[in-house]
Amino acid sequence: MNISRRHLLILLPAAAVAWKYVQAATPEDSPNYKMSEHWWGMLIQIPKCIGCGNCVRACATENDVPDGNFRTWVERYHVTDTDMTMPEVISPDGGKEGFPVAQEDAGKYFFVPKMCNHCADSPCTQVCPVGATFVSPDGVVLVDQEYCLGCAYCVQACPYGCRYIHPTKHVADKCTLCYHRITKGLTTACCEACPTGARQLADLKNPNDPIHEFLKTHPVEVLKPQMATGAKAYYFGLDGSVR
Amino acid sequence: MSGLKDAGHLFRFAGLFVIAFLVFLLVRGYVVPKTFGQYGHYRGAAIGEIAARPIKFAGHQACESCHSDIADVKTKGAHAHVNCEACHGALFQRLPARPQPRANLYQRFVALVVAPIPPDAPLLLHADDPTSVTPVKPDTLVLCVRCHTASAAKPKGFPQVNPADHMGGVPCQTCHNPHSPAIGADANGGAGTSSATGGAK
Asked: Which CATH number fits domain A35-121+173-236: 3.30.70.20, 1.10.10.10, 3.40.50.10540, 3.30.1490.20?
């Protein structure tokens, strides 16, 4: 092939432009999902949770969560009438198979589903020494398992105890807010499996998302607000004894 | 410029610095992933990799696109807002691994005997192939009881029964249609009394 200098000078910029599109392989470049148009969170309504453990099982199925580790789990609080500040908290196997029957007494019971709060100012991402965990542009805290060293600094840094070291991959693992689902228009596995609607995926940037109406008309709380983590798991009906 | 007469060693040293810097740039360009720093201090391509993980729960919209008859029954009953997969689970199968055409004897042995279905085998969803991935009927004695067993810990408005008193081992679907569980007067929207405490809302 004989290319003159003139033709080469014309071809080179064209090839550079083409290569830019070849390299593009991120969700931002996919036509149906724009990261800049979403800001994900979760709404959890305590009065609706019945402690069935559907969310824990669905999460384990969807994400191949190893036995004994949990990306989400359910705790049962029992606040006795004698000491309101020291609740009894149980979570047998993360609440995966439900909870033992509770007898009526003078105190109160309630269930608290827990999961990654997908903090906007997350302590876990700030401590990563290699940049393997990060808040994505659409507000989801993710782990790059190709890049993670498994040092577990983030596991210690998470104030909510939402991370673990995967027993066979030896890297940090956590809730991805079912990123592979929400980027395709589906809800998370836990929300899909929740029979009472206690969990609800929320897109805080989508003006049509019912979360906005809910936040306007209901008092909500986040866990450990004093830590200023910018948590985006909003709890409705949260008791003051929950830590 | 007599001051530079004896400065040759400085230029040689500066030259070494320049070479070391170029080597650093070369190694850095090779070691740092291409998309590192695209959105922040992380590998931008990781987002796409996480988004590409396989889906197992097809979502109730996928179920309803074929099972519209059941969806119609369900929307009229108390389980209207219970998604299909909350009870039926994610209907998927792992495809058994086939030995590669050029696999050696050891690889064939692993694929056929040791791990016929590896944990990372490709998925086949019922929603994608309804004939080869067939659903298993859930055991109502386990499934219904998990949610509806009476417990002081559950919200007061949630319908609850004591399984031993309520049914005595008779499967729930003998009396209740799981897709629209109210019986008799309740089912027709009447104000019949239910043996379950709490209202089916």
From this structure: 3.30.70.20
